[in-house]
Amino acid sequence: MKLNGFNKIKTAVFISGNGTNLRSLIKYSLLRNSKFSINLIISNNYKAKGLQYGNRFKIKKKIINYKNVKKAEKEINKSLKENKIQLICLAGFMKILTKNFIKKFKGKIVNIHPSLLPKYKGLNTHKRAIENGEKFSGCTVHFVNSKLDSGKIIIQKKIRIYKKDTPNTLSKKILKQEHILYPKALTKIISNY
Ligand code: GAR
Questions:
Q1: E strands within 76-169?
Q2: What is the pLDDT of residues 85-96, one digit of tens each?
Q3: Are the CB atoms for 41 and 24 separated by under 8 Å?
Q4: Interval 20-44: pLDDT, tens
Q5: What angle separates helix 20-29 from helix 167-191, to the nearest 10 degrees?
Q6: What CA–CA distance (Å, rounded) separates 133 from 41?
Q7: Is the CB of 76 under 6 A from ligand 1?
Q8: Which of 32, 61, 104, 108, CA to CA, is 20 to 30 A from 148?
């Protein structure tokens, strides 16, 4: 993939909630040496707290009505095209993309997941890891394929689970690491373009 005129890969971030990963990606993207820019925020949820970062950093936002998935993805597609998006980052996006959509953007969609994949795909990862007596959990950035949380792993960070950890304390520790890991993962894949 060719770099655009500003030498940065034009990236869209898809969110559904708090958007703290979005915030960390935006902040990193503003560093002079970053290899990507955040040009578009897509959300299926107009109440997503993370949408505030669109206002704060003057980034285009698009809220998508997901009542009809086909229509929703058509609208997303249009928006991605209009904004010449080259890379898609899912960051707490709680909708499943269709096989067709994923095929269209093959190798250009990445996701962050709060576990050491392939362990604990899906939801409630921290609770399940603690209940199973795991000594470690962590976070993973991976390419998105048509199976849930199963695409090729780009990078992972391992985090110790202590006896005193609850799903809440563990989630906070992991989220903090996610904020470091996601920009690192993008830098890594873009270097291979
Ligand atoms: C993050 O922990 C992310 O890994 C997780 O949702 C959170 C979003 O936080 N994603 C998933 O569970 C996807 N399966 P954020 O909105 O503050 O970035």
A1: 87-90, 109-113, 136-143, 153-160
A2: 999 999 999 999
A3: no
A4: 999 999 999 999 999 999 999 999 9
A5: 30
A6: 37
A7: no
A8: 61
Confidence of residue 4 (pLDDT cuts 50, 70, 90): very low
Beta-bridged to residue 142, according to DSSP, are 111, 153
pTM above 0.85, yes or no: yes
**What distances in angstroms separate CA 188 from CA 39, 55, 148, 151, 161, one per listed residue?**
19, 28, 22, 16, 27
What is the number of structural domains in the chain? 1
Instruction: Quote the ligand 1 centre to 5 CA distance (angstroms).
Output: 31
Range of the domain at 116: 2-191
Q: Are 169 and 160 in contact (CB under 8 A)?
A: no
CATH number of the domain at 20, please: 3.40.50.170
